[in-house]
């Protein structure tokens, strides 16, 4: 059912943890299952120099987040914003169709963390924070943001 790469990233996830002095933090929830992901980014001169994640989610969410952190490390924030859940799934040699929704968490958490960074830097309006995030879970973003 799962590719070897998925199993590898699930059993041995990369970049798990937190960054206490992160420049951007994104917390998102998956509206389909209620799973939660938190992504921490360290950013220097618009380049992602470090990334860590924590998830309360399924194995596919762990594997896609692990791969996503590998993909964004060393990228500029513009490049990282363009990484899609499909690209992450392809890098893992695919996911079963019923688990594709799990890969949304990684994409959305990265976007939310970059948006948080831009907001802290005054590069974006507070109210437009979700314009760059996935519309599907906008309500969840807001809900989680309020809780923090
Ligand atoms: Fe919730 Fe996979 S079942 S993220």
Task: Describe the SSE topology.
Elements: H1 4-11, E1 24-29, E2 36-44, E3 47-56, H2 59-72, H3 77-81, H4 85-91, H5 103-120, H6 138-147
Antiparallel strand pairs: 1-2, 2-3
Helix pairs in contact: 1-2, 2-4, 2-5, 4-5
From the spread of the alpha carbons, the general shape counts as globular
Bound molecules: FE2/S2 (inorganic) cluster
Main sheet? 3 strands, antiparallel
Strand-residue proportion: 15-25%
Counting H and I runs of at least 4 residues, what is the number of helices? Answer: 6
- In round numbers, the mean pLDDT is 87
The parts where pLDDT drops under 50 for at least 5 residues are 127-136
Spatially, the strands of the biggest sheet line up as 1-2-3
Overall CATH architecture: Alpha-Beta Complex
List SSEs in N-to-C order.
HEEEHHHHH
The count of strands amounts to 3
CATH topology: Sufe protein. Chain: A
Overall tally of domains: 1
